[in-house]
Design goal:
Largest sheet: 7 strands, mixed
Number of strands: 31
Strand content: 15-25%
Number of helices: 27
Strand order of the largest sheet: 6-9-4-3-12-15-14
């Protein structure tokens, strides 16, 4: 957090405010004072619920080594791509992209005689200048070097036209036969697989697309539709992007789509979907105008493009892609039946990709090392939408999810936000788990420190200052500094260029005579060149029977303390109130305090914290009672769900009645968790409830969780229920997939033969991946057989299955798997699969 001015750093006067969220119970005996040091004192009353636990061992969170990879410096540009015209048709018979492209460009600060273009695995038919004269070129399969007829002086312009084709491209353009849809994918550096171009993010250009389709189909691309015309038995669609963008945002999608028309002010909004999915498309895309209105208002920059289309794409390789003005969305993520909500709600995905139209498209990272300026911002805008649309609790829960994801990512491989190392593909920077959640968390901390008004004013300045340009992290810092008048270099050094998070040991001492509470914190994170001591002003909230007290502990060194005047003894004490600071802490408090926090805290993340800590005290009756009450009665679904999951550690007499009640919760997410958690217990009521859920719940998510739990219990008729589910088709093949997952619990001999057919390529990929996981789970003693069955999936048509197969072979550890893994690697283009293969081979060799 940003620094605040205080007369003294050690003492804060905090005013009483905010009534407790519910009528407080009769006062309990106040916890004994605890010394503000690293030892705690136990109250004379030794009842366990009043005892203050000891500190946990250090470190509070473990950090992995930085990710592997080589440093990739930004390419030195020699020319500026000014405009590009692409004419393309998709040859379905050969799965080929047949096209021509004209590039208009200018030399930068030095004369150039050669123009290098990115073009992978293409057949180049001709290269000509503006007058139609052939130009000499060399091509190595990745870079097309075009020799100009004469040297181009700095600032001078020229045009180059290339005729080309690529047959069955491994990336860039995807032919989906089952839907007769073509879609393209450019990020990170994949436009070069279907268009010769300058394929790095640090240049921006305008472009036009002429796309041929059958007469019964449509073509979508960037910008405005300038027109269409009949060409023989085909239609040629002409799209024009009038404002500049980076070429990884180029897109073309063709297929039999219907276009649903929506609008925000005078901006047309289109939802491209299949003729049989109109209602599902309205359900998935329908929040778009509301999000456009919100983002325009918050940023102070109206939606900056001519129109906004979203298209549902089959077998898409990501959740969504923010192609400028023409976002591609996975049909799995967008088109869903009504029963699938809230689990399948697509508002977050829609908001994320829309947020990119400002941050990623209007302002674009200058290099992949600064990709958090795209993805962290879009994640933050998604959180902004969720908070505005669904309330402060939902927004806080989203912030918590991002923080937990950041901590988990650091455990795998700690790295700063700005990071330019990768092994195979810059996609690895996106998949490390940092740039999305840590990036959003950094922006949330700035927002909290500055306040909404000043924060959004700074965002406006940043946005308008760099519109249609490229940015690095210091551009953001400078824009915020100009707006706020604050020196943000220390903040950026900690959170953007540094790594890790602060880890605190927190203690408290209450003076019953003076009614003062002293809170002491010590930073205990490991420190090295990436992570030092953090500066943070940490919010605290104390609940008493006479009201709540809010204050701040300013941490500007290894140890900090603050003292607060209270109107009465503390009933609960919340460190990092509101959960705005990205951190980890150990703050030992007695069970009575945590139970009060869970029952009466107005801060939803404080109630989540209480659940997590009480879950570690499953032997205490007060902890169990508090957990059961939260599972039944908390006002927020996320707290109920978290309490339900925590009940697995508690005695059956406490947990089972609460879980049976939770299995009837109005929210399907809570019911799903209840169904999964009931597998931890036995007894006729548990089995009966699980069978009822598995066969009759309105949500197939709940049915699937219940079926797996029912199988875990060893119910006599579990296989009968599984076989029935295997015979039913459903959205995303969800019933069959859950049945395949359940097979691992019915015994290896019985399940083995039932699983093998679901490895076939004709099976839905979700079911195939479940079959792989279940086979590995039952493979003990038959690892070689399992590996032999899974190895052919390395050649599956979808990357998800290929990666799952590689990972499974690594876990099985059979040496004969190395040959098929290495054979697949020689022809594989998807970096996620390549990385999974490399990890699997290393695991097998080290087995």
């Amino acid at each position: 957090m940003l620094h605040r001015s205080f007369a003294t750093a050690s003492v804060l006067a905090a005013a009483a405010c905010a009534r407790p969220s519910a009528p407080a119970p009769p006062p309990a005996p106040a916890p004994a004072p605890v010394a503000a040091a690293e030892t705690t004192r136990v109250a004379p009353d030794t009842m366990v619920s009043y005892r203050v636990p000891s500190f946990r061992p250090l470190p509070l969170a473990r950090w992995g080594a930085p990710p592997e990879g080589e440093v990739h410096e930004r390419r030195a540009r020699t020319y500026d791509l000014l405009h590009q015209v692409v004419r393309v048709r998709f040859d379905w018979a050969r799965h080929a992209v047949v096209g021509s492209t004209t590039l208009r460009l200018a030399a930068l600060d030095r004369p150039i005689a050669t123009v290098p273009l990115d073009a992978v695995a293409m057949t180049v038919r001709a290269v000509r200048d503006a007058g139609g004269r052939a130009l000499h070129y060399t091509y190595d399969g990745r870079t097309l070097d075009v020799s100009l007829a004469r040297s181009l002086a700095p600032g001078a312009r020229t045009s180059i036209t290339i005729e080309y084709e690529t047959v069955r491209p491994k990336k860039g353009a995807y032919f989906i036969d089952r839907r007769h849809v073509v879609w393209t994918q450019g990020e990170m550096i994949d436009t070069r697989w279907w268009i010769p171009t300058y394929d790095e993010p640090d240049d921006k250009t305008t472009w036009e697309m002429y796309i041929r389709t059958a007469r019964t189909e449509r073509a979508l691309s960037n910008g405005r539709l300038a027109g269409s015309r009949r060409v023989g038995d085909e239609i040629e669609w002409h799209w024009v992007l009038d404002e500049p963008a980076s070429t990884y945002l180029m897109t073309a999608v063709t297929g039999d789509f219907v276009v649903l028309e929506d609008r925000w002010r005078d901006v047309p909004i289109g939802y491209w979907t299949y003729p049989d999915s109109v209602q599902a498309a309205w359900r998935g895309f329908g929040s778009t105008p509301r999000a456009v209105r919100l983002f325009s208002a918050r940023t102070g920059v109206d939606y900056p493009w001519a129109k906004y289309d979203q298209v549902a794409a089959p077998d898409y390789i990501f959740g969504g892609m923010e192609n400028v003005t023409a976002t591609t969305q996975s049909d799995d993520g967008i088109l869903h039946p009504a029963w699938a909500e809230p689990q399948a709600n697509a508002e977050g995905l829609v908001a994320h990709e829309l947020g990119h139209q400002w941050y990623g498209d209007l302002l674009t990272t200058a290099d992949w090392a600064n990709a958090w300026l795209n993805e962290g911002f879009a994640t933050f805008m998604e959180q902004t939408y969720q908070e505005a649309a669904h309330g402060a609790d939902e927004g806080a829960f989203d912030r918590l999810a991002a923080q937990e994801a950041t901590i988990a990512a650091d455990a795998r491989a700690r790295r700063p936000l700005v990071w330019g190392r990768w092994k195979v593909d810059p996609l690895e920077l996106f998949l490390s788990g940092h740039i999305y959640p840590r990036g959003a968390s950094v922006l949330q901390m700035l927002r909290h420190q500055l306040g909404d008004s000043l924060f959004w004013a700074a965002m406006h300045h940043y946005t308008v200052s760099h519109a249609y340009g490229n940015v690095v992290s210091d551009d953001l810092r400078e824009a915020f500094e100009r707006t706020t008048g604050r020196d943000l270099r220390p903040f950026f050094a900690q959170w953007v260029y540094g790594a890790g998070v602060p880890q605190f040991r927190v203690s408290y001492a209450y003076d019953t005579t003076a009614r003062t509470l002293t809170i002491t914190a010590r930073q205990v994170q490991p420190r090295d060149s990436l992570t030092g001591l953090f500066d943070a002003d940490v919010d605290v909230r104390v609940l008493t029977d006479s009201g709540a007290v809010n204050g701040v502990v300013p941490v500007h060194g290894e140890t900090a303390s603050a003292t607060f005047q209270l109107p009465a003894a503390p009933r609960s004490i919340r460190w990092n109130a509101g959960g705005w600071l990205l951190e980890v802490h150990d703050f030992p408090r007695p069970t009575v305090m945590l139970a009060h926090q869970l029952a009466h805290g107005t801060d939803v993340l404080g109630r989540v914290e209480a659940v997590d800590l009480l879950a570690q005290r499953s032997g205490e009756p007060k902890a169990g009672a508090a957990m059961a009450a939260a599972a039944r009665d908390d006002q927020f679904w996320g707290v109920r769900q978290r309490a339900v999951e925590a009940l697995s550690a508690f005695p059956a007499r406490v947990a089972v009645p609460a879980l049976l009640d939770a299995a009837a919760d109005a929210d399907a997410r809570v019911r799903e968790s209840a169904a999964a958690t009931l597998a931890s217990f036995t007894g006729a009521p548990v089995a009966a409830r699980l069978r009822e859920l598995a066969t009759a719940d309105s949500s197939l998510y709940v049915r699937g969780a219940a079926l797996r739990s029912y199988a875990k219990l060893g119910a006599a008729d579990a296989v009968e229920l599984i076989q029935a589910a295997l015979g039913r088709s459903s959205w995303l093949d969800i019933e069959r997939t859950d049945a395949v997952r359940a097979l691992r619990f019915v015994g290896a001999d019985r399940a083995w033969g039932m699983l093998l057919p679901y490895l076939a390529f004709t099976v839905d990929r979700h079911t195939r991946q479940a079959a792989i996981a279940s086979l590995v789970a039952i493979a003990k003693g038959r690892e070689a057989d399992a590996a032999a069955a899974i190895a052919p999936v390395l050649d599956a048509p979808d990357w998800y299955s290929r990666a799952a197969a590689a990972t499974a072979l690594g876990r099985l550890g059979v040496s004969s798997s190395i040959a098929p893994l290495e054979a697949r690697r020689r022809v594989e283009a998807e970096s996620r699969v390549i990385n999974a293969i490399d990890a699997a081979v290393a695991a097998i060799r080290g087995h």
